[in-house]
Amino acid sequence: MRRTRWLILTAITFLLIAVGSSYYARVERLRREAPQPPPKLRQGIDAAAGDWVYRQNAGDKPVVEVRAREFEQIKEPNQFLLKGVQLRVFHKDGKQFDLITSAKADFDVAEGVLFSDGEVEIVMGVEEGQPRGDRLVKIETSGVRLETKTQRASTDREAKFTFEQGSGKATGAAYDPATRELHLKAGVDLLWQGKDAKARVMRVQAAEAIYKERESKVFLNTWSKLERAGLNLDGGPSVVTLLEGEIRRAEVQTARGTQISDSRNVEYAGDQLDLDFAPGARVTKIAAVNHAKLVSLSPAARTTVTSDRMDLDFDASGRESVLTAALARGHAVMESRPAPRAGAETPETKVLTSEVVQVKMRPGGESLDQVQTMTPGTLEFVPNAAGQARRTLNGDRIWIQYAANNQIETFRSVNVTTRTERPPRPGVKANPPAMTQSKVFLAKFDPATSKLSEVEQSDDFRYEEGDRRARSAKAILDQGKDVITLTGAARVWDSTGSTDADAIVLNQKDGGFQAAGNVASTRQPEPAKKKGSGTALLDEEQATQAKSDRMTASENNTKIRYEGKAILWQGANRLNADRIDIDRTRRVLEARGNVISQFVEQSKETKPGSKPAGPPVLTVVRAREMDYSEETRLAHYRGGARLTRPDLTVSAREIRAFLNEKDKDSSLEKAYADGSVEILQVSPERTRKGTSEHAQYFTADERVVLEGGDPTFADSVKGVTKGRQLTWFSRDDRLLVNGQTGQPAESTLRRK
Questions:
Q1: Which pTM was predicted?
Q2: Which of 263, 260, 265, 285 is nearest to 274 (CA)?
Q3: Which backbone phi and psi does 169 adopt, to 5 degrees?
């Protein structure tokens, strides 16, 4: 029994050894074949894993997806440390998304905030399965914070942008996918190349910018600046509108821009500038609103246009935009100020004002071509040098044509009034302004100097300067000579008289004029030096009228010349000649060629209010020429003279007629005749004829004295008488004879 129990114990022992040996062998084998245990987690890390994915959906559409190559979950606070991060922020369609990649990021699940302190790349508008290409917007920055609940991403650090048509940078940026808005916080600097690689680059700068993707607009805040080749635009807040990634419109507040070329600079400004662009950021239109201003600078002039609103049109068919036209509306003012030139007088500054002014540029946009007003306008010429006149013109419409270098070539207007203020002439304190009006106005300028050369006004021309007036169908001003030529029913008048003619030339320098063709002139009476001092030739108390082919007046109308069949008369007194000259200062009159003077004197009244006792007495003197002096009252006729009175004719080489003052009984006081004198009286009953070398005729007693050259008096009834001196009284038919020593008087009596 005891032996059996020992055997059982021995068997159990061997069995335990065998089982234990097998167990430990198996355990060793399992130990060797078992995988290595994970490394121990760092302190504060609750869990760690690779290829981590986090998703947030709205219904069946994804909103946010975060992928990381590695992640670590921090116990406190509840955060994920992500490496090799890819973040997808999906658009509303659930297909396109904005892809954010970063080498490292912190993700706070509780707060729903992902933050990457390192470099971050954001690609906007990615679609799964589609190539990224170059059209997508790419942003490179750091310090990005993403809110997974709102998908808003932001950074306060520098961000660089790359998009299809350009690139840019800013300091601080924020993007809200819900509103599709990108906020560039400061130092915005963008470069737009456009689709055409050869196009000029547009640079956009601003203090702050907000890009609203849904509206395709960029809002530039505080200040903004646009630059492209020679185009520079500075302003306040702006709105830039994009089309397929290209700039198509810019609305800039308080803006000032310049466009610089080799030969010209163009500046424009306004409280707001609206710019339209063609592809390649080439300007097609600019609208300036409130305090609009356009300045064109050239070597010849500075032209400035201001208005309430201005629309500029550009030709964008070439590589550069070229200004073609401008329309200024509302209180439009266009000033052209010539540039001074060495050794030359600076022309007047031209200032055009109207409610609406349209400007057209010459091909190439380098200079002005045409300017016109669409409403009534005013053009003012402002002097820039001594001696220049200030001129102002008002017209219903105004058209200006330019030559090269912004030089005015012609100026045209309708229903015009003008005002010209000239510098005072020597010895004159001030000149009255000269004013004109007409229905049609055309001015021509010297393109080399931009000075006014000629003005043509037609259709009911009117002129006024002081008390002088003029009118005609047409008038031409020759600026170089400073004369106005009136044609077509021309008339000039003032307080001293009037002149009508086919054509009249007014000299604006000295106030004189010339008239030609059917001249008719009237001179108003003037106060005489003393009462009754006038004579039959120059009576200042009577109106003087004249007709001739030509007339010249000078020295304030004190010197007057009539030429060609000239006729001068006062009442019934007349003077005819080929030429008549009157000098009212010296009070002399000269007549040349076929002179005929006619003096009419009424017979004395027997009683006050009664009729004259007889018919008027007419004295006519004919000669080749005549000179008259009011001081001596002597009319000297030469070149074969003949004086004719009723029943009496006096002929001689020359006759000197002494005139009475007008209040005397007779116009003619006496007359002296010299050279081959012949006295002739013819009546139905008899003929009397006296001859001598010298004769005197006295109207008071109708006495004729013949002397010199063998005086002879022949009476067809009484016979012939000779003597040294013969005195004949025609009124009572008496003849006195004085003989001379050694030669007694002779008489031959005729018997009945």
A1: 0.71
A2: 285
A3: -155, 160
Residue (of 68, 83, 87, 78) closest to 175 by Cα position:
87
Distance CA 466, CA 458 (A): 22
Q: Using an 8 Å Cβ cutoff, are 310 and 295 in contact? A: no
Find the length of the chain: 752
Question: Which domain covers residue 99, as residue numbers?
Answer: 41-149
> pLDDT tens-digit profile of 596-619?
998 887 555 544 555 555 677 788
Share above pLDDT 90 across residues of the chain, in percent, rounded to a whole number: 35
Q: Of 118, 149, 180, at which residue does a domain stop?
A: 149
- Which DSSP state fits 614? S
What CATH code is carried by the domain that includes residue 599? 2.60.450.10
> Residue 359 falls within a domain, yes or no?
no
For tokens 């013969």, name the residue: 726
Number of domain units in the chain: 2
For Cα atoms 458, 460, 466, give the angle at the middle one, nearest 5 degrees: 100
Domain boundary among 127, 149, 171: 149
Strand partners, 445: 452
**271 closest CA partner among 227, 306, 296, 246:** 306
Q: How far is CA 574 from CA 164, 348, 561, 621, in A?
A: 100, 51, 16, 10
Q: What is the pLDDT of residues 113-156, one digit of tens each?
A: 888 888 988 887 788 766 655 556 788 999 988 887 787 888 99
pLDDT digits (tens, 9 = 90+) for 315-336: 888 777 788 899 999 999 999 8
